[in-house]
Design goal:
The chain has 160 residues and is α+β, with helices and mostly antiparallel strands. It contains two helices and ten strands; from the N terminus they run αββββββββββα. Bound molecules: copper (II) ion.
Length: 160
């Protein structure tokens, strides 16, 4: 078939990709906005009614400090359905906090606070790890997170 200078073909393969790309753009833009709203970068102001947690990253552990003074190492526990607001800082080198199924990566630094907020919507265990090469035991620096009910969380907070 002779497709040379066929107006109908020319128009079709110009217009069809435009339509397809427009259709694909809708879910892409939606998903991008959802992801952006779940993780804020360097905002200093804590969001309202959030569970505030101070996070310290140091070779090769994560230390979590909760509002009531409870501390845990390498075990982040959060109540389901509530906004978690992490205030992150490093004690030595650059690390990166990352729990892929909960929120985006956030780099953490010595002498500078970064913030990450998100709402864990489902109970369960979520694997996470340091996403910035930080030394010999970097791969052991896990940031696994457990999301439990509000009641269980309050009980957990009281445990020494
Ligand atoms: Cu690290």
């Amino acid at each position: 078939m002779d497709t040379k200078e066929n107006k109908w073909f020319e128009v079709t393969w110009t217009v069809l990709p435009i339509i397809l790309l427009t259709i694909l753009a809708v879910p892409t833009v939606q998903a991008t906005y959802e992801l952006t709203s779940s993780s804020a970068g360097n905002v200093e102001e804590p969001p309202q009614e959030a569970v505030e947690i101070q996070v310290i990253g140091k070779q090769f552990n994560w230390i979590y400090m909760f509002e009531n003074g409870k501390q845990s190492t390498n075990e982040l526990v959060l109540p389901v359905g509530q906004k978690a607001s992490l205030r992150l800082q490093a004690e030595d080198v650059v690390h990166s906090f990352w729990v892929p199924r909960l929120a985006g990566k956030i780099d953490i630094f010595l002498g500078k606070v970064t913030r990450l907020s998100f709402v864990p919507n489902e109970k369960g265990s979520y694997q996470g790890k340091c996403a910035e090469f930080c030394g010999a035991e970097h791969t052991q620096m896990r940031s696994d997170t457990r999301v439990i009910s509000e009641g269980e969380f309050q009980e957990w907070l009281k445990q020494a």
